[in-house]
Amino acid sequence: MRSMKMPTVRYQNGDMVMGRWPGSNLYYEVKVLDFDAKSSLYTVIYKDGTELELKEQDMKNASGFQTRSRSRSRSPGRRRSQSRSPARTTRRSSSRMAAAVTTAAITDGVTSSRKDTRLKDSLEIRLSPLPQTKAAENNGNNKHEKKEEKQKDENNTANTVNEKSEAAVEVGPDKTQGRYNLRRRKDDGDAKPVETKPKQLGEKDAKLAAAPAASLATPLDFGGKIGAYFWLLFLPAWVLFLVLQVNLEDPSLTNFPPPLPALEAFWDAQALGFVILWILFQALLYILPVGKLSEGVPLRSGKKLKYRTNGFCAVAVSSLAVAAAVHQGVDLTYIHSHFLQLTAASFLVAVLLSVYLYVRSQYAAGEQLALGGSSGNVAYDFFKGHELNPRIKEFDLKFFCEMRPGLIGWCLINFAMALAEMKQQGLDAPSYSMILVNLFQLLYVVDGLWNEEAILTTMDLMHDGFGFMLAFGDLVWVPFTYTLQAYYLVSHPNHLSLPAVAAIVTLKLVGFYIFRKSNSEKNAFRRNPSDPKLSHLQIIPTATGKSLLVSGWWGVVRHPNYLGDLLMALAWSLPCGFSHLLPWYYMIYFIILLVHRDARDMSECRRKYGSAWDEYCRTVRYRIIPRVY
Ligand SMILES: NC(=O)C1=CN([C@@H]2O[C@H](COP(=O)(O)OP(=O)(O)OC[C@H]3O[C@@H](n4cnc5c(N)ncnc54)[C@H](OP(=O)(O)O)[C@@H]3O)[C@@H](O)[C@H]2O)C=CC1
Ligand SMILES: CC(C)=CCC[C@@H](C)[C@H]1CC=C2C3=C(CC[C@@]21C)[C@@]1(C)CC[C@H](O)C(C)(C)[C@@H]1CC3
C-alpha cells in the first residue's frame, strides 16, 4: 500500500493491464497485485495463476490493444512451420489446456508484414511451466484429454507445458530488453531459482522418467548403425597411424601406411601395469573425502546426482607425486620410448571398460539410460553409450574418466616429452616451443579441474551415455593424441623468436579469456538463473522451465566457448611451426569435432526447446565465429 500512494506509480493494485511475458513480445492480461518501491517492480498475476514481477516498461494499458482472432493469425506459413516444428505435439495438446486460461488474442494495432511474421514467431513460443500441482489443476479436469495428451507427449522430454498462445500480443521492437524476474513471490523466501528446484513429479513426468529410453530415443548420429561400426574400427586405427607417424623423421600423410611394427611390439606388461597403477592412483584421489560435493543438473527422474569435485586437489597431489618420483631417479622418458605400448595398454583398458559398461547397461532402469544411446542396435549403443551415469556406489565412472586419468595423464606425458627433448637434443632446459606447449596445455587442464563443477553442465555429462566413444576418448584419445605436439617437438625442434613467443602467448590468453568467461557464464546461469551477478543478461524462456541466455557471451555467437577453445588450439599448434601437418592435427580435428558438436547440440536444443530455440537462433545468427560462421 505504501508504494501505491507514490505519485510515480502508474498502476494500482487490482488494475487489469497487459503484461509482457518474459523474453517474448507477447502481452497477456494480468492483474496488478503489488508494487515494490524498492525494486520498482510490480507483482502481477496472469490468468493461469503465474505470479511474476514486471517492470513498468513491460506493462501497458489494455485499452491500447485490439483483439485478433486466432484463426486470423494462422497463416499458411504458420501451418507449415507448425508441421515442421518439433514442438508441435506439445503445442497442439497444450493448446487445449490453454483453453482454461484463455484471453483474447490481441494486437496493438500496428500492422505490417514484419509484424505478422513476428506474431507468427512469437505464437510458437512455449512458455515456462506452472508448478506441477497448478498445471494439474488447470489441465486435469478432462480425463480423456489428459490421457490423449500423455500419448502425444510420449516423444517429448519437456516437462508439462502450459501455453497461452491464444492470448498473444506483440508490441515493441525490443523483444528482450532487460532481464525479467521470474521468481515467484512465494519462492522469495528461499530465493531458489525455478529450474534448480528438485522437480515434484506429476503423474505424467513420473511416467516419462520411467519410460524405456528407447521410446524417447533421439535420432541417431555419427552415421547411425553403420557409422558406429566405422568409428569403432577407424578411431583406434587412426590413433595407431598418428602414434606411428610421430616417430618418423618426416611424418607425412604420404607415408601411408607407415611401417607397421611386429605384433609383439604392442604388448608390454610393464606398460599395462603403469597404466593400471595410474588409473588406480587417480581413483584413490577421486574418492578422498576432500573438496566440494557438487550437484549435477536434474535428471529425467528429477533426481540430482552428487559429484566430488576435487580435481584441482588431484592434479596438485599428482604433481607432487611426479616431482617426488623424478627426485627419486624415476626416468619419465620411459613414456616417450614406450609410447606405443602405453597407448596399446590404455586401449585395452578402454575396450574392457566399454564392454563392462555395455553389459551393466543391460540391467539399468529405463530412467538411467541415455536418450542418445538407446537405439536398440548393439554396435551403436555400445559406441555411443547406453547408460547415462554409470556408477559403482557413489563412484561416477563417466565423470572420473573424463576428468582424471586421461586429462592429468596428458600433462604428465607432456612433461615427460620435455624431459625427452632435453635428453635427445642435449639441452639444459626445454625449448621455448616445448615450454609454450607444456604451459598452455597445463593451463587448459588445470583450469578444467579448477572449474570442475562446470563440466556438469556440458553435453557429455548431461546428455551423452558412457560407452566406447567417451571411454576411448578419455583414456586413449586425449592422453595419446592431444600430446602429439609435445611428442613432435622432441625430435623436430622449432626455434621461436621472442616476438613470436609474445604473439602466441597473446593469442592463447585471448582464447582462454573467451573460453573461460563464456563457460563460467553459462554454468553460473544454469546453476542459479536468479544470480544477481547475471541480472544484466537477457533471456528467452522456454517450455521446459529453463531459459536461454540471449545476451552476454551467449548473445555474441551460439558457442562462444568453442571460439575460445579454437583460438587456444591455434596457439598450441603455432609453436610447432609449419614444416609438417602432424602438429596441426589437433587443430584440424578440433574444428571438425566442434562443428559436429555444434550441429549435434543445435538439433538437440531444437528438439528440447522448440520455437524458443528458433527464436534464439534468429537473434544470435552465428554459431561459432561472429559474422563468419
Ligand atoms: N578439448 C576438447 O577436446 C574438447 C573441449 N570441449 C570444450 O568443452 C566445453 C563444453 O562443451 P560442450 O559440452 O560441447 O557444450 P556447451 O558447454 O556449450 O554446452 C551446450 C549446452 O549448453 C546449453 N546452452 C546452449 N546455449 C545456451 C544459451 N544460450 N543459454 C543457456 N544455455 C545454453 C544447452 O544445454 P541445456 O540448455 O540443456 O542446459 C546446450 O546443450 C566447451 O568449452 C568446449 O570447447 C568440448 C569438446 C572437446
Ligand atoms: C573422437 C573421439 C573419440 C571423441 C571423443 C571426444 C572426447 C575426447 C572429448 C569430448 C568432450 C571432451 C571434453 C574434454 C576433453 C575431451 C573430451 C572428453 C575436456 C575435459 C577438456 C578440458 C576442458 O577444460 C573441458 C573440461 C572443458 C573439456 C570438457 C569436454
UniProtKB/TrEMBL annotation:
Location relative to the cell: Cytoplasm; Endoplasmic reticulum membrane; Nucleus inner membrane
Tudor domain boundaries: 9-67
Skewed-composition ranges (Low complexity): 95-107
GO biological process, one term: cell migration involved in gastrulation
GO molecular function: Delta14-sterol reductase activity; DNA binding
Region entry Disordered, spans: 57-202
Name this protein carries in UniProt: Delta(14)-sterol reductase LBR
